[in-house]
Amino acid sequence: MTEFLEQLRMYLSSLYIPKIQANDIVEIAIIAVLLYMFMAWIQRTRAYTLLKGILIVGLFIVLAWIFQLSAILWITQRLASIALIALVIIFQPELRRALESLGGRSFFRSIFPFEAGHDVKERFSDTVINEIIRAVNEMSEVRTGALIVIEQNIFLTEYVETGIALDSRISSQLLINIFEHNTPLHDGAVIIRDERILAATCYLPLSENDSISKKYGTRHRAGLGISEVSDAFTIIVSEETGRVSYSFMGRLETGVTPSELREQLHYVQKRMLKDRSGTKFRIWKGRDKE
Prior knowledge:
Blueprint: H1 2-14, H2 22-43, H3 47-66, H4 70-90, H5 92-104, H6 107-111, H7 116-122, H8 126-141, E1 146-150, H9 157-160, E2 164-169, H10 172-178, E3 189-193, E4 196-202, H11 218-229, E5 233-237, E6 244-248, E7 251-253, H12 258-278
Helix pairs in contact: 8-10, 8-12
């Protein structure tokens, strides 16, 4: 035991421990803040999904290096020179929006979100669910086409910018009036964030899923398309039949009843509350399994 302690003392005495000065602490703090902001930003954009794909590719490269797969390593070496340019091109929309948001919001508020706990309690209340259900039912009865997108963790800013800004409180009367025939705002989607209608007449990406029946038109394809590129919950009211559908996580459910729609909205409400409150300081997290 004495010999072991002596060896341990000699080993520890040979270690080099650098002196930490005040500027080192400042540098560490700055890097930590920037890294935190980067992870918080990438988690709320589609870049999070792209980053996971890149990490999977990187895992394959590591496995190729471990097992010495020469062909894959040769291809990787040839593509490494253009990889940085490719990444800039792939993430160009997200990088542009990140710089725009950095210049358009309070810097310290984004770093120290101490008031986030209060905001979580106010998001997506039962009153909002009741107003949405009431509007959907009334539009379904008179066959008024509607497309309502409820934003969750991934920001839909790029699609909000394609529409007309409203920033209004959610009410069934306002939703019905927006989608009324021959009105300026009826064409396109309404995007909801928290308890506000951000914008109307928003353009959404159309789904390229070939398995969708041809009887579904552009409205259903747009609702499914936004659920394929984000975690948004979308409600669709058919103008031809008045049937109510919803899309979520790349899945389209058609002909749902008001009780089924209410059940799904409550599920989304609980999911949003769990993600935004219980994991406020846990940046790297996966999506909840259904």
